[in-house]
Design a protein that fits this description.
Elements: E1 6-9, E2 14-17, E3 22-25, H1 26-31, H2 39-50, E4 55-58, E5 63-67, E6 75-79, H3 80-85, H4 98-128, H5 135-145, H6 163-167, H7 171-174, H8 176-187, E7 191-200, E8 205-215, E9 218-225, E10 236-242, E11 249-257, H9 273-290, E12 294-302, E13 305-309, E14 315-319, E15 323-328, H10 332-343, H11 346-351
Parallel strand pairs: 3-8, 9-12
Antiparallel strand pairs: 1-2, 2-3, 4-5, 5-6, 7-8, 8-9, 10-11, 12-15, 13-14
Helix pairs in contact: 2-4, 9-10
Length: about 375
Amino acid sequence: MKQVEIYFDEPTHTYTDDEGNVYTSSTQMIGKISQPYDTQYWAVYRILDEKRIKIIPRPDKRIIEIKDPRALGEYRKFTIDELIGGELAFFLDDERTWNTIVKEWEHLATVACDWGNDTHNYLEDTINSFYGQTTKDAEKFEGAMQLDAIKKLPNFKLKITSIDELEKSPLKAMYTNIYNVLYSLVREGFILYAEKRVYSYEHKVSGMIDVLAVKGKEFYIVDWKTNKDPLKFEAGYYKKKWNDTRRRKVKTDEWVVKDDKFLFPLNHLPYCKGFVYTLQLSLYAYICELWGYKCKGLIICHIGNVEVIDDDNNVKKTEKKPVIYNKIKYLKDDIKKLFDWHVLSKEDKANLRPMPNGIRTLN
């Protein structure tokens, strides 16, 4: 593996190297095989739903079936374009347009992102405060470990080497079970690194690991996740119902299973948050193994929250106790397939032909 200097521009979330190459981030890699979300379609659907119009969504064809009040039990099919700009625009509201709905969603997404970033930054700062930041200290311990290979991984700085250093952290009081995960790793002789950039020069793929625990040639990856809902490892959604004022739909505890899949070449995997995160951690692990290390395990520390939103879009979040997922499956073969697909030219991808069953293969 060729060694280069990797740079990360946070505002644009862009990775480059000292040769001027632009890298695809782990988020971008997984985004390429993720199911697209048709914001306009579902915003129009929401408006019709708010008006208590009986409708049946057909998102795969961008059609909404609307019950015809003039014909008992009959539904008429309309495209989104017809509903927005054609003669059927009377179904929509001049004040509450689909753009208004999208802006509301963007506001809620921003609040959720800010909350997640604050929590994420707290955890990173906690790790970073465990040990001094000087290069001299880092080099001293790297020499003591006698790990030449570790210097091949970019931007590594030593963080935690002992239980005594771990005890100095406020993490134990704030997130006891996350502390226990790190405690177990340090007790077993692993050294913890925070916000570690890893890359594959050959594939031009890069990413940042929350915590990489290294002992000899073995490693664990620990990742923080802060989305509000419990993690599910099957495709589906929580059913929603209207609140008392019928101004907002709220999630229930009822889970509706769907058959959504990732896009090719991983179209055999269920498309859901659990597998998005599994692929992300597996991607990091695969890159580390390209450098000669051996993955011992992938761990997700999920800090969810209870979200209450009033009719004026004011959001109040109450944090839940973190849930530890310490048996995340390493999808090595799937990541290899994704990396192989990533480096193919557009022409090569276009020339892949469907098999008789309609599924394309990538050898």
